[in-house]
Amino acid sequence: MTAVAELPAIGEEDDAGAVRVPAGGTRLRLRALAAMGHSDARIARALGESPRVVTTVMSARARTVSADLRADVVALYEAWWDKRPPGRTPAERSAAAAARSRARRSRWCTGAGLDDDELDLPGYRPRATWRPATGTGVAGDDPLGAIAKRRTPPDSRTEAAR
């Protein structure tokens, strides 16, 4: 991962030619998914990313993200914002409980507590904090087709954009 001091300015291209955008809205969307119980690893699998990328953005250690990553997170958030993760196995239930516990300790709100009109504005802070939520159903495992993408040869432009 590129150190924060080495990142290009917002809107500029990095060394791989990928446009960088502010990470704030992406971070809040990821945190809202965690508040619903989606673990970093589950989110990373759905995005076709490493858990380290997800954790780095969620923990506010990244000021910018690639425009491609932002777009993928927006799509995943749209699919999962009101859905809880499956709890088919003890491991899934444990991972969901750990994600919710982290969100509760960190006071991260679910998607219902975010203002979608302001979410990507620099400096936006949700008024809501963590509250228990059960969602409207169970989220699918691969809403973006990330698993299928990993089975095909990577596009070097896309890989470099991350």
Give an overview of the whole structure.
The protein has 162 residues and is mainly alpha-helical. It has one domain (8-145). It is built from seven helices and two strands, in the order E-H-H-H-E-H-H-H-H. The protein has helices at residues 24-35, 40-47, 51-58, 67-80, 90-106, 146-150, 156-161; strands at 20-22, 64-66. It has a two-stranded antiparallel ribbon with strand order 1-2. Helix 2 (40-47) packs across helix 3 (51-58). The chain is globular, with a radius of gyration of 15 Å. 31% of the residues are buried. Mean pLDDT is 84; it is low at 1-10 and 151-162.
Name the descriptors.
disordered N terminus, 7 helices, mainly alpha, single chain, 162 residues, globular, 2 strands
Order of helices and strands: EHHHEHHHH
Percent of residues in helices comes to 40-55%
Strand order of the largest sheet: 1-2
Gap from first CA to last CA: 9 Å
Give the averaged pLDDT, no decimals: 84
Number of strands: 2
Quickly count the domains: 1
Label the structural class: mainly alpha
Main sheet: strands, sense, barrel? 2 strands, antiparallel
